[in-house]
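User: Predict the structure for this protein chain, please.
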Amino acid sequence: MTVFSSGVLSAIREFNMIQPGDRVLVCLSGGADSVCLLSVLSELSDKLGIELFAAHYNHRLRGSESDGDEEFCLSLCRGLGIPLYIGSGDVRSEAERLSQGIEECARDMRYAFFYETAAALGGAKIATAHNAEDNLETVLMRVARGTGLKGLCGIPPVRGDIIRPLLYTKRADIEAYLRVNGIPHREDSSNGTDDYFRNTIRHRAIPALRASSADPAASAANMTRLLREDESFLDSLSEKYLAEHPTLSASELSSQPFSLSSRVIRKAAGSELSFAHVEAVLELLKSPDPSASLDLPGLTVRREYDRLIFGQAESVAFEPFAISPGEEREIPEAGLKARAELIESAGEIHKSFTDLVFKSECVCGNMLIRPRKTGDFIRLSSGSGQKSLKKLFIDRKIPAHLRASVPVICDDAGVLGVYGIGTDVRSRVEKGDRVIKISFEDIK
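Assistant: Here is the predicted structure, written as structure tokens:
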């Protein structure tokens, strides 16, 4: 075993990339890095106890040159006795259709093919040929575009089923390995241009760094390894916070350090929110509006007084319906069933917010159950004035998106009562009165 392959084996073992019996799918472009990866894993396959496969994706971006890469990969794998899976797609047309950049679209299509192939192989590990310089380039690109600690962690050696055995290997060592062993590879002509941001970083920024630093790629590798430890620790704190606070308090979360609150927000949202989105959520936490909400890509964040909720919440009103004694109706939007009955002589009257009782002779015309309307009001006791239902719902801290599903009982003269709140004084019941009782129960 060569010094080079020994170093790759050490990285595989240090980061627990591969287990004996694994199937490993190498992403093979035909370039120096991926050819090196395929070759060294072929050399180590018996020692690792793995079954090796390769996958090549033709992006059709460079005409005959792209087809030449495909032919080269076929020939290489044939010589090594490694099964090769080939996919292709019209990246340029797809990027136009999706209004995506060429680079981003190519990556999405390429990885979709890799994942699909790995799944067809029964869950193979996907090995990519990212090296130490790729990691440095990625960090610099993220710095240029703006990033936090997670972005500064660079390319991880393992992410799910994706492994990167060459991540701590320098590009010069890869080229030397190929040269010493007489292994051919293809050169992508687009790598020589500055058409893509990564190429600009590679051709201009990194040479400037090399002029003032002996080994910027090694420095970046050390930095990202240390920062990944810090990121992992902070990430574990946010996991613990969410586990201990299944219901998020806006006031409590806003009092936490940004390094914790920002991570909790991203985890609760279930997506990689941008810095601007996280700041918007933090502003929502401090909003004086107890029912404030914020629309973010793919979800809504809202306040329900001190409670912070992530997800889609729509105000769902139900259709009004008339109800008479002896009838019952379900209100699916409220999760309730309403039943009306006539009681000839009321017994002891007990205060209840789920069973509302009205003096029969005080009911004007038909009884109706409906959602709240603008202008609705109720007077709950003789010693108090009338209060609008809107203000009453706010006072009772009923979340804004639930208010349209609260049943309001009314007659031709106005509101008689509100589920969960009480009845109007005009239909107050005394013992022995003939009454209409509206009972509500949860739909099982």
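The chain has 14 helices and 21 strands.
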